[in-house]
Design brief:
The chain has 442 residues and is an alpha/beta fold. It contains 13 helices and twelve strands. The strands form three sheets. A seven-stranded mixed sheet has the order 3-2-1-4-9-6-10, with helices on both faces. The protein is elongated and about 155 Å long.
Amino acid sequence: MSGRRDVPLMRGNGQSIRGSRIAIAIGIGILLGSVFAFLYPEGLFLRFPRSEERFQVNRLSFTPWRENFTVNSTNCGTSERFKTLRSELSSLLKKNEELKKQIRELTLKKQLAERSKEHAEKQFLMLGKQHKAGPFGTVRNLRTNPGVIPDPTINPRLQKILEKVAVNKELIVAVANTNVQDMLEVWFNSIKHVGIPNYLVVALDDDTETFCKTKGVPVYRRNPDEGVDSVAKNGDNHAISGLKFRILREFLQMGYSVLLSDVDIVYLQNPFEHLYRDCDVESMTDGHDNGTAYGYNHVFDEPAMGWARYAHTMRIWVYNSGFFYIRPTFPSIELLDRVAARLAKDRKLWDQAVFNEELFFPSHPGYDGLHASKRTMDFYEFLNSKVLFKSVRKDPNLSKIKPVIVHINYHPDKLSRMKAVVEYYVNGKEDALKNFPDGSDW
């Protein structure tokens, strides 16, 4: 019995001890919690705040001048990023322009290749074995004569220059001396503005050569030639203009096509993108409308002839010898030789008159005509100054169209009109052409 009594007593004593242990553990827990709460008020395991929260904390903890510094630093970073983006945009725009230029050049090369292929096929058909004529309306004559075999030994020094300057073996060439230096500067500045790389000045004196070099303009000074140099020093404008026919011969012999240009011309577009290249000579006209530029039937009236009083004649205004494209063919070289020979024989002759006579006069007793093919340029694209000042500037529609070039060939006040053309078409000054008369004062 006594044993049964002892058991409950032991159980009660064990429960009391276990309860006291729990109480002690709770007390210790509370004590440790208080200690940690005091030492680590933000918690024992810190989390990293989000960027927005860090920014808020920093703003609250910084002094005012530090706050301003933080904001200004942020603005500075934004400004630097903006500058970087603007620089990248500018770079992309430049690359885009370069790609556009490459596309234009490749398109031009493709067109030239297609035309060359077509011309080659026609040459093969025409120059090969004889063929029968095809059905009505299908027969086409060959206008494009084959080119000469290039001979670089003609002038090795010039050949090196042409290899650097020419594009697709063609280039603009101007012949100039110191008397036309002011116009020459307007001329090559307009070419640079358009972005035409293939052009060359043939300097007739040392001053012109030096002037071009200081302006970064491709220039070629010919070897001493008594015949050329004497005219360059003492000749008038017509005599100097006539020299180009002798000078151009070397270019053609070496296989280069030349766009011959006087210096009283303003370039507004790249002319090489507007040529056909299907003839020996492609020239601008002095004509001022479709009839005078491209030809018309002129009726001559002679009443004394009665029934036969009316005689029909063919009329066309002359080609301008100050701006024409000439290919390296035998007829082209023969044309230059004929004109140069006649001008050397009689220096009173006008080179433009001789140029046209040799191009257009047919064979007749005592004279063998030149069998050269020719094309007249669009007179609204390749604009002479008569068309500009008498018609285009007064027409609300035509005045908005930018021509390829403007040639101040009809007016003696060339420099002032050239500058006015630049102001009107390049700088957008609408009244730049207003104060000039249609013609000249004398």
